[in-house]
Write a structure and sequence with these properties.
The protein has 65 residues and is mostly helical. It is 45% helix and 0% strand.
Length: 65
């Protein structure tokens, strides 16, 4: 399993606009889910490309500071 910092490094390879300070505010599980999503989005496209929202994740999310 990757450490939190390794996950953040991998996320930033795919999304350079994601700030480290912002990413560190999430736990490892959420970061890992986001990394999986980025990997899928950056991969295959078209009808065969499917992403299923995790049951614990709401369809709309807002983060208040």
């Amino acid at each position: 399993m990757m450490s939190k910092h390794q996950i953040i490094d991998e996320i930033r390879k795919q999304n350079r606009s994601a700030a480290v300070a912002f990413l560190t505010s999430f736990d490892e599980q959420d970061l890992h889910s986001y990394l999986q999503r980025l990997t899928r989005v950056n991969g295959q496209r078209g009808r065969a490309s499917v992403w299923v929202r995790q049951s614990k994740s709401p369809a709309v999310v807002a983060r208040l500071h």
